[in-house]
Amino acid sequence: MEYKVPKYLQIKTDIINAIKSGELKPGDKVDSESVLKKKYNVSSITVRKAFNDLINENYLIGVQGVGTFVAKERINRKLTSISFSDELLQQGYKIDMQVDKIEEIVNENIAEKLEIPPERSIICVRRIRMVNNEPVAYQSSFMDSNMLNLEQAQKICESKSFYKTLAEYNIFPVGATENYSVKAVNDSHIAKLMNLRKGTDTFFVKRTTYGESGKIIEYAETYFNKDWYSVTVEVKI
Length: 237
Hints:
Layout: H1 7-21, H2 33-40, H3 44-56, E1 60-63, E2 67-70, E3 75-77, H4 84-90, E4 95-105, H5 108-114, E5 122-131, E6 134-144, H6 150-153, H7 156-159, H8 162-168, E7 175-184, H9 188-193, E8 201-210, E9 216-224, E10 229-231
Parallel strand pairs: 3-10
Antiparallel strand pairs: 1-2, 4-5, 5-6, 6-9, 7-8, 8-9
Helix pairs in contact: 1-3, 2-3
């Protein structure tokens, strides 16, 4: 007796083969539900079953009101380096940075995180992190102005690296703690720079970086596009 492959599985297999062959590339829009219904002579339920499986297996990503697209390869951070850039370079990614704003501010909440007096000014560096020419993160770094002044911070525009700029002034991070959560991008300016819709959920990372003396040298907040980003943590027993 001949075994008939379920139609949803046939749809699923055909899309996977198209992705693996390069016919469908990351970011490409796949045929709509109505097109696939006619092509395979199936119901909406069958097409949705195939789409749901492919989304759960990270082959596709659905954007409400827009369509279904081939998922982009995610950056997999293994947290092996303090520097985000260095870790991705080691993995063979092409990286870049676009400075959004460098400014001097006063903020009691940030000052508390830096463990400095509330009235002291803070240097804030806001930038877009690019990977393979795609914006994957929006990062805001805060430092005590007594450690790095505004003029010195401007050199980041030339070096394209926050930590390389710090090294020029003999500031070397030796460790950091990171806190991960999910947070929507509700700032329309940041959402636009990340090519996201306002209100889109992202991985939100709060990072505190320490120098050799144990003094806090940086507090940072980063929105990571969750469609591009994942983290692997190795636990040894």
